[in-house]
């Protein structure tokens, strides 16, 4: 059943706040920034679902939306989003990269990490939102695609762009059973397209198997930080390599395996300590959640990394 939102139905003074609420309820919690130049705000959103995949056509005047580190921490959500630029121009920023989008271009971004969308002109964009576990492409490989411009004029883009735009146009007349099958088809097309794009990128750039494996291992670590038994030995076994080869991979980064695990755990603890919804949780419980179960050890590590004890840091947030 399609849903829609249109600021044209609202008094001018209420439009921007209503849009802020609409984008956060339609997608994931976001913060909108109004246009830089004084003008009457306008935006519309029309959404529908095919299986568990949401397709939303968004249109409006120039503005920006951001998913900040604080918002990610307070309202975690695990989706891939694909922004397909139908008209106007836009920029997708994530992981220090920026994808400049014109009509026919698209980019992928991940709601578990900070991102920003900036529209510099009046625009229309189709946003496809997919639960991350549904897409059978490794997390480390998908991260290499985030905020990269993919043209709809050639290669995999020439398949993906018209397929998704066409699907959006027929969804209103599609019943739920057919929609479920179409959802499976969308996942198959996207998985094949992204795998092909990754393969082409590997052929075009000096990215080596070493770098790809290191990226995959880092994402594996991020997914298992809460496991107190996470160790170089368990990581090596999960990736079918020797522990000594694992250490060599990390030696090139300047941070060893154990140091990387410790660093990522402390970053997660710092994020949770800063989140308002965790204010009732004891500091020790947050440390334990991320594999640091000894309160004294956790406190020493945290102070060494950030200059404050966990309790001192929380009191300043």
Molecular shape? globular
Question: Would you identify the CATH H-level superfamily of the largest domain?
Answer: Jelly Rolls
Order of helices and strands: EHEEEEHEEEEEEHEHHHHHHHHH
- The strand count comes to 12
For the residues shown, what is the average pLDDT? 87
Measured by DSSP, the beta-strand proportion falls in 15-25%
Describe the SSE topology.
Layout: E1 3-6, H1 12-26, E2 31-33, E3 43-50, E4 53-60, E5 63-67, H2 69-74, E6 79-87, E7 90-94, E8 97-101, E9 105-110, E10 115-119, E11 123-131, H3 139-143, E12 150-151, H4 157-170, H5 176-204, H6 209-223, H7 232-238, H8 243-251, H9 257-274, H10 283-289, H11 295-306, H12 310-316
Antiparallel strand pairs: 1-3, 2-5, 3-4, 4-11, 5-10, 6-9, 6-11, 7-8, 7-10, 9-12
Helix pairs in contact: 4-5, 7-8, 9-10
Describe, in plain words, how this protein is organized in 3D.
There is one protein chain. By secondary structure, this protein is of the alpha+beta class. The chain folds into 2 domains: 3-204, Jelly Rolls (Sandwich), CATH 2.60.120.10; 209-316, Homeodomain-like (Arc Repressor Mutant, subunit A, Orthogonal Bundle). 45% of the residues lie in helices and 22% in strands. The chain has 12 helices and 12 strands. The strands form 2 sheets. Strands 1-3-4-11-6-9-12 form a 7-stranded antiparallel beta sheet, sandwiched between helices. The radius of gyration is 22 Å and the shape is globular. It starts with a strand and ends with a helix.
